[in-house]
Amino acid sequence: MTRPAITALPLPAGSLLERYRDMGAFTDCYAADVAGAVDLPAYVTAFYNSAAFRPERWLLGWAAKRPATAADVARLAAGASERFSAWTVEARTPDQLMLCDFQGRTRSWLMVRPLATGTRLHFGSAVVPAERRGDAFVFNALLGFHRLYSRILLKSAAKRL
After folding, report:
1. pLDDT at residue 63 in the model
2. Is the pTM of this model over 0.85?
3. What is the pLDDT of residues 70-79, one digit of tens each?
């Protein structure tokens, strides 16, 4: 099995994250190409059940008292739930899902795009501008970790598919 390459890309046209980029928020976009046709529910399921994301699910359940199970992932993927652990669904289209954290500060975004030979999986984030100077310092200090973690999450989901 080949390892999916993770690439940082500009946000694609029509991305649900565009409005945050346009308002000056930090946004990013990573992509991985996988063989075969993958729809959004399959990608959401693979992403939030991946080996890389399961520790975050556990941590949020324990520390933030916002647990999430594989059944919760299935409901989110099927469009049967508007809540998932520390997030609520902010927007959903047939090929995209955007979640907002319970504090309203960050967004997590997933998108699938068909290719001639498979599917491009997109994963990105938005962080709304900090109102306090200390928030910006913390964000900048954690940015390297965020970029690495984003790549790990996307690679783990792509491997499941």
Report:
1. 75
2. yes
3. 999 999 999 9
The Cα-based distances of 98 to 59, 62, 75, 86 in angstroms read 21, 24, 15, 13
Distance between start and end Cα atoms, the chain: 11
Q: Which amino acid type is present at position 74?
A: A
CA dist 62 to 14, 48, 55, 57, 150, Å?
Answer: 36, 17, 10, 9, 22
DSSP-H helix ranges across 49-132: 54-63, 70-78
Measure the CA angle with vertex 56, ends 50 and 61; round to 5°.
120
Please check whether residue 106 is in contact with residue 128, taking contact to mean a CB–CB distance below 8 angstroms.
yes
Q: Which residues contact 13 (CB under 8 A, 6 or more apart)?
A: none
Residue 126 pLDDT exceeds 90 = yes
